[in-house]
Design goal:
- The chain has about 325 residues and is an alpha+beta fold.
- The protein folds into two domains: about 5-115, Glutaredoxin (3-Layer(aba) Sandwich); about 135-305, Jelly Rolls (Sandwich), CATH 2.60.120.470.
- The chain is about 20% helix and about 30% strand.
- It is built from six helices and 18 strands.
- The strands form four sheets. Strands 7, 8, 10, 12, 13, 14, 15 and 17 form an eight-stranded antiparallel beta sheet that branches.
- Helix 2 packs parallel to helix 4 (about 100-115).
- InterPro entries: Galactose-bd-like_sf (IPR008979), PITH_dom (IPR010400), PITH_dom_sf (IPR037047), Thioredoxin-like_sf (IPR036249), Thioredoxin_CS (IPR017937), Thioredoxin_domain (IPR013766).
Length: about 325
């Protein structure tokens, strides 16, 4: 058995690997499965040649011993190979298919080799401005972007979806945009009201907020005071937000902002954000005397929390290995 393969012993260990390794390849197998045994030597060869610490990690999950993990990822066939990038599933291969597995893994290995290991870049091309907390991942793709509702946004800046752009902010890349601006700014004063619905119930651990005040323009500032409201059915008016209790209030300090990425990590009281279908972020004021608050990116960090009932397991593939 290849010493490069990590044999998963718990759901916590698996979550930790998903957050600490850029790419994770997982073999869901069973001891009784003939096709699983047949493809195991090939999987070991891939692990031996392509494992890269912190970049590519090969794991195995015994479905009989870890039914909680099996259920979480809706594994119904043996073997199933899953590929994760930055904690998110990108590919699933059902059955003992060496050709498909080889193509998927080697494509990712090539991608990882050519990519920087810097925290502000990811192998999928999805930019992230701060390190991820242990055991959690970027779940911004769970945002229901069709039903976003932002108040007091300057129409000459980007639209609501701009802050969920997966690309590196133009303020860092210094690229000359030929289309819409990839950030938002407040309009009549420094306040913003952001209604962010999700496609499912999430466990939200923290937020990453990126802001690059325009150099030489004292009127553009970063957010300072934030009030968060969970599970609202629609955007709040500014008067309404002042009249109801917030789920949490945060005041950002200068020291919270990373100089390189322009990003502040906003830690939440996790116990209050365990079953979240939407967030309202009320930017109460900006950090300074400027009249316009700018936000370039928002990242949602946590767990999707979605689980499906586990069906009957079956084995798929060439039975000759039995």
């Amino acid at each position: 058995m290849s010493s490069k393969i990590v044999h998963i012993e718990s759901a916590q260990q698996f979550s930790s690997l998903l957050s600490s390794s850029r790419i994770v390849v997982t073999d869901f197998y069973a001891d009784w499965c003939g096709p699983c045994k047949a493809i195991a030597p090939f999987y070991e060869q891939l692990a031996s040649s392509l494992t890269r610490p912190g970049q590519i990690t090969f794991t195995k999950v015994n479905t009989d011993n870890h039914k909680d993990i099996t259920q979480t990822y809706s594994i119904t066939a043996m073997p199933t190979f899953m590929v994760f990038k930055n904690g998110r599933e990108t590919q699933r291969i059902r059955g003992a298919d060496p050709k498909a597995l080889d193509a998927a893994v080697k494509s990712l290995a090539s991608e990882a080799e050519s990519s920087s290991a810097d925290a502000s870049s990811s192998s999928s091309g999805s930019w992230i401005g701060a390190s991820l907390p242990r055991g959690y991942s970027d779940i911004t793709d769970s945002v229901d972007q069709l039903n976003l509702d932002f108040l007091n946004v300057d129409s000459e800046a980007g639209n609501a979806r701009a802050v969920f752009n997966t690309a590196q902010p133009s303020a860092i890349s210094k690229s000359k945009s030929t289309g819409e601006k990839d950030w938002i700014e407040s309009d009549t004063d420094d306040q913003l009201m952001l209604y962010i619905p999700f496609n499912g119930a999430l466990k939200v651990h923290s937020l990453h907020i990126t802001s690059f005040p325009t150099e030489g323009d004292d009127d553009i500032v970063r957010p300072r005071t934030l009030k968060l409201y969970s599970n609202k059915s629609n955007v709040l008016s500014f008067d309404e937000a002042d009249s109801i209790p917030e789920t949490q209030e945060i005041t950002l300090q200068d020291s919270d902002w990373d100089a390189k990425t322009g990003t502040a990590k906003v830690d939440l009281r996790f116990v209050k954000f365990q079953n979240v279908s939407s967030l309202v972020i009320f930017v109460v004021d900006g950090d300074g005397d400027g009249e316009k608050t700018r936000i370039d990116r928002i990242k949602i960090i946590g767990e999707t929390g979605e689980k499906r009932a586990m069906g009957k397991l079956e084995k798929i593939g060439d039975e000759q290995g039995e």
